Amino acid sequence: MSVADEFVERRMLKFMCFNCEHPAMLISKKEKIGTNDDGSEKFKIELTCPRCKAVDSFILNDSSEATLSKSENSERIPDASKVL
Fold this sequence. Notes:
The chain is about 0% helix and about 30% strand. By secondary structure, it is mostly beta strands. The chain has one domain. The chain has a four-stranded antiparallel β-sheet, with no helix packed on it. Strand 3 and strand 4 form a beta hairpin. The protein starts with 11 loop residues before the first strand and ends in a 24-residue tail after the last strand.
């Protein structure tokens, strides 16, 4: 099973909201945006805060399998093992 399989829409990610500091955000969108040199698919993951509805996003498989980019708004790197 790849890391990307864990990131499914409507699951939660334990990742603090940059706006209201809610402890988890909802995975609201998973969009394929390309393929890396190692053959892994690259995805844009969009997160929505269930409390304040703020939106953040990051790249899953950023340049290689299981590499996550910093989020767009909080500028922190999510932990792939924190999908609930």
